[in-house]
Amino acid sequence: MRKGENESEVDQSGAACPTSSVFRLPTSDFRLLPLTFRRRTVDTEPVITSVDHPFDATAPAVWTRDLVRTFGKTNAVDGLDLSIQPGEFYGLLGQNGAGKTTTIRMIVGLLRPTSGTAGIGEFDTWRSPLEVKKRIGVLPEEFNLYERLTGAELLDFTAAMHSVPRAEAIKRRDDLLGMLDLEADAGKLVGDYSRGMRKKVALAAAIIARPPVLFLDEPFEGVDAVSARLIRRLLSRYTELGATIVFSSHEMYLVERLCTRIGIMSYGKLLLEDTPAGLRQRMGAETVEDAFIAAVGGESEERDLAWFENSPA
């Protein structure tokens, strides 16, 4: 039995939902699509040509209003207001525990806020969840994949769930697997993939439906240098076509290179927000990394380890 079959869904309270209420793709509509790989020079251009499911261009692509999430007595996110415009490559930065991942999970509908609202375009995530999910692709830091599907099957299934026409789904799948250097492993079970390969196929699943908004939490972790360069080109091209990307990473050189605007969080609040150049200027720093450390007070927290300075025995 493959993962997901005959399983009841569990809501956020932990209660099992009846299987009749869980949407399941009819077997007749999900047949494995033929692999049609062709030897060619890797290029990002054929993969993304437009974005689907547009929303009201007068509304922010991604927004939060007084967003709060409490765990016990701790405010992981504390009154957060974000307004990210269509076409932005937005970097959401912060130290561990700053609230970045919690924020993304609330925006995309994986975690219910304690108070406040969040949404995509004119749609509120919790009032119009299906409309939001049609318009987003998500690559979380910790992701679960259908491990008993092959890489090709996973992309076929994802495309079918988003009603991508069959012929177009084949083209997109083959282009993505080829670009991400997964052609030779397309027939292997995802459970046998390395962490880097799983990250790449998860990214392919996030963008195969061409959503207008993409959330990426540490997308380059474990990815080899060649694939990382191709992914950077693909993502830059995606925003050029009008898509919006929310990008969370601790790799500051990637943030500085890719992002058009950066927001820095600390203890659940938004400390400051600016372009990379504006951030460097405001903090009197030469790099975004230096500016970030200055903004969160990292340099003042440096401590010497006297025992570490002694010569090893």
Features:
313 residues; disordered N terminus; four-stranded antiparallel β-sheet; globular; alpha/beta; six-stranded mixed β-sheet
Quick structural gist:
With 313 residues, the protein is of the alpha/beta class. It is 31% helix and 19% strand.
Give the topology string: H per helix, E per strand: EEEHEEHEHHHEHEHEEHHH
Beta-strand content bin: 15-25%
- Radius of gyration, taken over Cα atoms and rounded to an integer in Å: 21 Å
Total number of beta strands: 10
Q: Report the total helices.
A: 10
- What order do the strands of the largest sheet run in, or round the barrel if closed? 6-7-8-3-9-10
CATH homologous superfamily heading: P-loop containing nucleotide triphosphate hydrolases
The first-to-last residue Cα distance is: 56 Å
Helix percentage? 25-40%
Characterize the biggest β-sheet: 6 strands, mixed
Name the average pLDDT.
83
Domain unit count: 1
Class derived from helix and strand content = alpha/beta
**Which fold does the CATH topology refer to?**
Rossmann fold
Task: Report on the architecture of this protein.
The chain has one domain: P-loop containing nucleotide triphosphate hydrolases (Rossmann fold), CATH 3.40.50. The termini are far apart. The protein is built from ten helices and ten strands. The radius of gyration is 21 Å and the shape is globular. Helix 3 crosses helix 4, helix 3 packs parallel to helix 5 and helix 8 packs across helix 9. Helix content is 31%, strand content 19%.
